[in-house]
């Protein structure tokens, strides 16, 4: 429809002729309800049966979504849903209540999870309409709906969903991915001031900063407001207040109206606003939605802002394939952060270059470049070098410890550092992209067979050869040598059998150091890194494959003296752990009375150093650190072959690597100390302020002691202060952080906990983390969640319910 036609149309009349013919809905009466997971009453259908409202099962029918969907097509595509962060369990109920006329969702215990409009009351009926709109209405006011899903869109709009932009801002939110309904990285917004915009938001915090829009169309709104129009024929446009038609820029630009089609328009998780069609009558169940057109044409090339991670996440790059959907790839030497979600970014699979002498003195011996054609991360550069050729660009980046990638374009060398946002493959502009990686550092080396297994095989082969020669000579000598050979075999097999009975540390790829080697590596244990309950840690340097690497050497103090077998067994168990949130054990020494452990060196010190220091990590960094610690503990508790309980979780035992990833240290060491070292006179292991209450009650100790310590530390991460602040004075209510945090939560004063503007602007995340922490510090261990559930709650996979008072077992309960 051309703009000139609007001079012949009066706007109200235009709206009337666009309205669909809607069948009379079968009203949902007061007191009606649906139950998730029930055999019956799981949905309310529209009169035509095209749409359903009710519960959609996700995750093996154990969790549900309150949603509206296309009911007649095989995949039951969801077009609207209540809060995507809700974790609706089986047995939950949605009800149109009597007599107040509210639509309320409750869990099996009766707790209210969601309400259709907090202030909406007085509905006498509800209805699922044939256009996909679910409404609450009253017979006393039939001219207007009290609440409708069309006025509260999620990621999708449907034909006849006319939005009056004058009344409210119209906004769609993308999802995290195709299978997760939480809010994702992108928004579509139409503002009453007259602009249509697609833009990214801060993720995962979801703070809507002033990120640059990647699609922005403006129009004159007119005096009486504007409307967003989606006709049944598939046409989508904006009608301004003065009646002008404002067309959006679609790719392709024109859609031929076809009858007998379902239509929808969705802001997909990759940031593209797409219009889809699906035949209402279909011949087989394999037919699916067809992309009719989209905005923008190429999302990979459209995102040009400096802020935000882009479609594919940090350190990855985006490419559009034949289906017009983006695919994500990692540069050489990098791997996906989550292999199951290739839109979540990439991380290096090698130790990054540090601005320290061991990495900068001879960088050519340690690093090399891999080349990509036409890959770019725009606006992430920090240096520009003109009139450079490829050799000069390589040399400049190699000698710059901050340079992770260099891009050469038309004689200009652009140097970039991590993290790299908004990466894309663009074949229209010819460029050379140089990726700096560590030599021999992209894959883990195969440790090869254990040393003890090599020599017996070789010796047996030699003995068989000797035996063959002897049998070819005189019978007398053959018998003599045969007897000797049998004796050798007997003693060798006895020795080998004894070795097999004792778990060998070498099987876990750990290196056995001599005390002299470690003394030389640490220059006589000269540079002390820290002290703890397990001993003193020293910095050292180790030559390996022509390069020098930093190490951390821990001298264990007063280790138990029950023998070499037990020590090696425990160290072997630690050495077999491999997780990105654990500090890796490289080797050990058990020479004489000396017991030492050798770890990879963490250059960014401990979490305590940053958390309680001057330059504190920002809010997003702290949230990611909490996520990393929880994943590491979940691995120790549930994914190791033998469960490992840390017993001393605290910020001093959380180290940070080059990329500020949290790495748990000192795990599994409790068994290596004598009992009178790991247990005080009261039988307590751990550090004051982080110790779980069951230690004081001589109750059975389980992995829940680590959950308690994590809860205390999570509050410290949130507030950037210690769990016990003795400097405040005994009368100050803030002295014990756990008590104060619960008091603030109970009184609805969470803002008092923090003085960081970023945190205050992200109250949803703050409240979720505080609730998780309170669940973790419950005095009753059975009430504490497992670390797996804690991780799921942190990541938004599992709902965080309101925690009870954590001090119910204590006679001192004035805080409850």
TrEMBL record:
Residues 523-798 form the Protein kinase domain. It is an enzyme of class 2 (transferase). It is found in: Membrane. One of its GO terms (cellular component) is membrane. SMART domains: B_lectin (SM00108), S_TKc (SM00220). ATP binds at residue 555. The keyword Protein biosynthesis does not apply. GO terms for molecular function: ATP binding; carbohydrate binding; protein serine/threonine kinase activity. The chain crosses the membrane at residues 463-491. Its EC number is 2.7.11.1. Keywords: ATP-binding, Disulfide bond, EGF-like domain, Glycoprotein, Kinase, Lectin, Membrane, Nucleotide-binding, Receptor, Serine/threonine-protein kinase, Signal, Transferase, Transmembrane, Transmembrane helix. It catalyses: L-threonyl-[protein] + ATP = O-phospho-L-threonyl-[protein] + ADP + H(+); L-seryl-[protein] + ATP = O-phospho-L-seryl-[protein] + ADP + H(+). Residues 1-25 form the signal peptide. It is a single-pass type I membrane protein. Residues 19-149 form the Bulb-type lectin domain. The keyword Transmembrane helix applies. Belongs to the protein kinase superfamily. Ser/Thr protein kinase family. This is Receptor-like serine/threonine-protein kinase.
């Amino acid at each position: 429809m051309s703009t000139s036609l609007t001079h012949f149309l009066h706007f109200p009349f235009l709206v009337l002729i666009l309205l669909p013919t809607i069948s009379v809905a079968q009203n949902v009466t007061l007191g009606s309800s649906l139950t998730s997971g029930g055999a019956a009453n799981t949905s309310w259908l529209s009169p035509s049966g095209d749409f359903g409202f009710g519960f959609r099962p996700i995750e093996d029918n154990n969790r549900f979504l309150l949603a509206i969907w296309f009911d007649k097509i095989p995949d039951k595509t969801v077009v609207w849903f209540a809060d995507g962060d809700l974790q609706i369990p089986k047995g939950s109920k949605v009800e149109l209540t009597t007599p107040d006329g509210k639509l309320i969702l409750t869990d099996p215990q009766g707790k209210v999870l969601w309400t259709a409009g907090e202030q909406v009351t007085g509905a006498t009926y509800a209805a699922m309409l044939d256009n996909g709109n679910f409404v609450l209405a009253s017979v006393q006011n039939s001219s207007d709906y009290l609440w409708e899903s069309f006025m509260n869109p999620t990621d999708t709009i449907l034909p006849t969903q006319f939005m009056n932009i004058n009344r409210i801002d119209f906004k769609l939110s993308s999802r995290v991915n195709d299978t997760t309904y939480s809010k994702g990285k992108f928004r579509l917004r139409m503002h009453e001031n007259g602009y249509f915009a697609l833009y990214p938001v801060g993720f995962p915090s979801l703070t809507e900063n002033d990120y640059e829009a990647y699609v922005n169309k403006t129009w004159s709104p007119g005096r009486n407001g504007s409307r967003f129009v989606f006709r049944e024929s598939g046409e989508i446009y904006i009608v301004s207040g003065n009646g002008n038609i404002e067309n959006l820029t679609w790719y392709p630009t024109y859609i031929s109206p076809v009858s007998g089609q379902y239509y929808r328009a969705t802001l997909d998780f990759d940031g593209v606003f797409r219009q889809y069609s699906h035949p209402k009558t279909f011949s087989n169940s394999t037919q699916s939605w067809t992309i009719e057109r989209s905005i923008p044409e190429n999302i990979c090339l459209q995102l040009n802002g400096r802020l935000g991670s882009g479609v594919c996440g940090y350190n990855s790059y985006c490419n559009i394939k034949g289906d017009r959907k983006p695919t994500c790839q990692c540069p050489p030497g990098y791997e996906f952060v989550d292999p199951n979600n290739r839109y979540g970014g990439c991380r290096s699979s090698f130790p990054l270059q540090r601005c320290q002498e061991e990495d900068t003195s001879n960088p050519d011996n340690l690093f090399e470049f891999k080349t990509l054609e036409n890959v770019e991360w725009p606006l992430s550069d920090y240096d520009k070098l003109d009139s450079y050729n490829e050799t000069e660009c390589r040399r400049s980046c190699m000698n710059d410890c901050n340079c992770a990638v260099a891009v050469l374009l038309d004689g200009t060398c652009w140097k970039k550092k991590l993290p790299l946002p908004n990466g894309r493959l663009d074949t229209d502009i010819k460029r050379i992209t140089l990726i700096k990686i560590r030599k021999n550092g992209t894959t883990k080396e195969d440790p090869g067979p254990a040393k003890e297994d090599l020599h017996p095989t070789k010796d047996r082969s030699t003995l068989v050869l000797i035996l063959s020669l002897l049998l070819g000579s005189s019978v007398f000598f053959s018998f003599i040598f045969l007897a000797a050979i049998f004796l050798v075999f007997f003693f060798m097999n006895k020795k080998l059998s004894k070795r097999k009975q004792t778990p060998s540390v070498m099987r876990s790829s750990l290196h056995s150091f001599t005390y002299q080697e470690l003394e030389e590596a640490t220059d006589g244990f000269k540079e002390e890194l820290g002290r703890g309950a397990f001993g003193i840690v020293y910095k050292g340097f180790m030559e390996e494959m022509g390069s020098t690497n930093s190490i951390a050497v821990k001298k264990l103090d007063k280790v138990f003296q029950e023998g070499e077998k037990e020590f090696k067994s425990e160290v072997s168990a630690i050495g077999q752990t491999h997780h990105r949130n654990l500090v890796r054990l490289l080797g050990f020494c058990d020479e004489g009375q000396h017991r030492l452990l050798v770890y990879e060196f963490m250059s960014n010190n401990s979490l305590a150093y940053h958390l309680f220091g001057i330059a504190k990590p920002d809010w997003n960094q702290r949230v990611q650190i909490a996520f990393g610690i929880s994943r590491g503990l979940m691995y120790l508790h549930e994914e190791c072959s033998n469960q490992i309980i840390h017993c001393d979780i605290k910020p001093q035992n959380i180290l940070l690597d080059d990329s500020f990833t949290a790495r748990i240290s000192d795990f599994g060491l409790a068994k290596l100390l004598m009992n009178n070292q790991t247990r005080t006179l009261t039988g307590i292991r751990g550090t004051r302020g982080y110790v779980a209450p069951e230690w004081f009650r001589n109750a059975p100790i389980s992995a829940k002691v680590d959950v308690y310590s994590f809860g205390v530390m999570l509050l410290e991460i949130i507030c950037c202060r210690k769990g016990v602040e003795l400097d405040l004075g005994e009368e100050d209510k803030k002295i014990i952080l756990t008590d104060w945090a619960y008091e603030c939560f109970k009184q609805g004063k969470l803002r008092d906990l923090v003085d960081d503007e970023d945190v205050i602007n992200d109250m949803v995340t703050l409240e979720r983390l505080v609730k998780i922490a309170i669940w973790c510090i419950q005095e009753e261990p059975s009430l504490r969640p497992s670390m797996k559930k804690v991780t799921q709650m942190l990541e938004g996979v599992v709902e965080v319910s309101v925690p009870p008072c954590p001090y119910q077992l204590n006679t001192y309960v004035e805080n409850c």
